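Quick review question:
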């Protein structure tokens, strides 16, 4: 039986719409294990908890989900006081210059965390660390509407990097690693603190590369070279799985 042109067009549109809807629904989900031992935040990622924690999976280009030019690995664990992040960033030409806290780190190579503990509220926390170990911490009341970022600093946050390279942009580097410990007490919109097993928060993790060519990389692609799209944040679920 022949299919009319109109039906063919309708089928194509329906299929296309199905792909779009599917893409919107397929946000990444990461199950966060609980560490029995507080992480020593020195940037080295040598704790047993990091060895046992699951990787968050593949990072891709922020704008379209295509393969990124460099690999990025991230892991998360928690305890009653902190949410811990680990980053492993292979990089043959590491570059960074900014050394002052709350400088515009988004202008250079950096890893970033965007955390929204209650999707029913529009506020979220943004954290950035560059290969020199400089921190930017921001509390946003709405999309791109931050408390002036030099006036809000987390009092108990911990962070560190470990670099195998020169951080001068020349070839020959191997990469860098980073640890961040965000105090649970900063996450004031969370339904429960410490989080209960099964609690789900929204989160995205990004990386910016500058050399040899600029690249915007994400755990959950946003569909644009824009990190501030909470609707595209992935999900983290707190579990009772234990790591050392």
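Suggested answer, residue by residue:
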């Amino acid at each position: 039986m022949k299919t009319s042109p109109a039906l063919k067009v309708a089928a194509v549109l329906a299929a296309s719409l199905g792909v779009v809807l599917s893409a919107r629904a397929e946000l990444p989900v990461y199950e966060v294990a609980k560490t029995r031992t507080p992480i020593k935040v020195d940037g080295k990622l040598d704790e047993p908890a990091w060895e046992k924690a699951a990787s968050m999976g593949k990072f891709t280009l922020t704008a379209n989900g295509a393969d990124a030019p460099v690999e990025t690995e991230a892991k998360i664990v928690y305890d009653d006081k902190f949410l811990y992040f680990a980053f492993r960033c292979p990089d043959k030409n590491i570059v960074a210059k900014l050394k002052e806290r709350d400088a515009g780190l988004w202008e250079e190579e950096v890893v970033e965390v965007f955390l929204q503990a209650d999707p029913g509220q529009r506020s979220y926390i943004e954290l950035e660390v560059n290969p020199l170990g400089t921190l930017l911490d921001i509390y946003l009341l709405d999309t791109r509407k931050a408390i002036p970022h030099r006036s809000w600093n987390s009092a108990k946050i911990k962070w560190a990097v470990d670099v195998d390279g020169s951080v001068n942009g020349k070839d020959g580097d191997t990469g860098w690693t980073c640890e961040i410990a965000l105090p649970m007490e900063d996450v004031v919109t969370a339904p429960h603190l410490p989080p209960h097993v099964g609690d789900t928060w929204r989160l995205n993790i990004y990386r910016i590369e500058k050399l040899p060519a600029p690249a915007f990389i994400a755990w959950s692609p946003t569909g644009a070279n824009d990190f501030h799209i909470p609707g595209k944040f992935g999900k983290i679920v707190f579990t009772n799985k234990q790591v050392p």
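Why it works: Confidence is low (pLDDT under 50) at residues 1-25. The domain at 29-243 is CATH 2.60.40.1190 (Immunoglobulin-like).
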